[in-house]
Amino acid sequence: MPDERIILIYNTPMHADSIAAEQTDAIIAIAGVTMIADLSGALYWPDERLLVVSDLHLEKGSSYAMRGVLLPPYDTIATLGRLGAVIARHDPRRVIALGDSFHDRDAHGRLTSPDRGVLAALQLRRDWIWISGNHDPELPDDLGGEVMPEIAIGGLAFRHEPTGAHGEISGHLHPKARVATRGRSVERKCFACDSARAVLPAFGAYTGGLNIRDKAFAKIFQTMGFVAHVLGDKRLHAIAASRCW
C-alpha cells in the first residue's frame, strides 16, 4: 500500500439508517462466481474450498521498532490467530495469501520459532500459495507452500495489485469506507466489489486503510457503481460506494 501511516479504524457501532443490507457474512458474485465475504476480511470460494486473505503484513511491529517507533510486539501472533480462526471455520483445501504477507523483505526472518510453528500448523494438509507483493517481492523456500506472482483459477485471477481486469481478486489498497450515521462518521475496513472484480481489505492486525473515494479506486472501478461490504462488529454491511465519503 502506498501510505505506510498507521490509521486506527475504531469499532463504533453502525446503525440501520445508513445500511442498505446486512448479514453476518456476505454472498457476493464476481465474474459469475459465488463467493463468501467473511466478517474477518477473508474471501471464501465454497466450490473450490479456497480461502483468500490479503496484506497480512506480518512483523510490521518489529519493522517499526527498528525505526524507533515502538508498538506492542504482538501483531504477528494476533494476525495468525485470526487467520487460524477463519481457517477453522471454513476448512479450506487451499489458501491464497494475496501479497504483502510480510511487512518488509526481511520480516520473514524475524518470525519467532513459535510463530513459525503456528504457520506450519495452518498449512498442514492444505495447499498454500504466497502471492508476491510490493513489500515482499521475494520469499524464501522455507516458509512452506508455493510462491507465485499471480494465479488464475476457474476464470478468476488472483494478484496483489489491482488492474481493474474482469474477474480479478486483489489486495494492496487496503480499502476502507467512511459512512455517516446518526450525526457522526464511522470508518471501517471493507471489501470493495462490483460484479466483475473485488479488492480485499487488509487482514493484518496493524494495517490501516485507504478510503474507497480515493482516485486509486476510480482507476479500478471507473464509476462509483460498486459496493463497500463494510466490516462491522458482528456483521457485514453492504453500502453503495456512492453513499460513502
How would you characterize the overall build of this protein?
There is one protein chain. This protein is α/β, with parallel strands linked by helices. The protein has a single domain, classed as Purple Acid Phosphatase, chain A, domain 2, CATH 3.60.21. The longest helix is centred in the middle third of the chain and has 16 residues.
List keywords for this structure.
single chain; alpha/beta; Purple Acid Phosphatase, chain A, domain 2; ten-stranded mixed beta sheet; seven-stranded mixed beta sheet; 17% helix
CATH topology: Purple Acid Phosphatase, chain A, domain 2
Number of helix segments?
Answer: 4
Radius of gyration: 17 Å
- Span between N and C termini? 20 Å
Give the CATH class.
Alpha Beta
Strand content: 25-35%
Q: For the report, how would you describe the main beta sheet?
A: 10 strands, mixed
Any chance you could write out the topology, listing elements then pairs?
Blueprint: E1 21-23, E2 26-30, E3 33-37, E4 43-45, E5 50-53, H1 60-66, H2 75-90, E6 94-97, H3 113-123, E7 127-131, E8 146-148, E9 150-153, E10 156-159, E11 168-170, E12 175-181, E13 184-193, E14 197-199, E15 210-211, H4 215-221, E16 227-231, E17 236-240
Parallel strand pairs: 5-6, 6-7, 7-8, 10-11, 11-14, 12-15
Antiparallel strand pairs: 1-17, 2-3, 3-4, 4-5, 9-10, 12-13, 13-14, 13-16, 16-17
Helix pairs in contact: 2-3
Short description:
By secondary structure, the chain is of the alpha/beta class. The protein has one domain (16-243): 4-Layer Sandwich (Purple Acid Phosphatase, chain A, domain 2). The chain has helices at residues 60-66, 75-90, 113-123, 215-221; strands spanning 21-23, 26-30, 33-37, 43-45, 50-53, 94-97, 127-131, 146-148, 150-153, 156-159, 168-170, 175-181, 184-193, 197-199, 210-211, 227-231, 236-240.
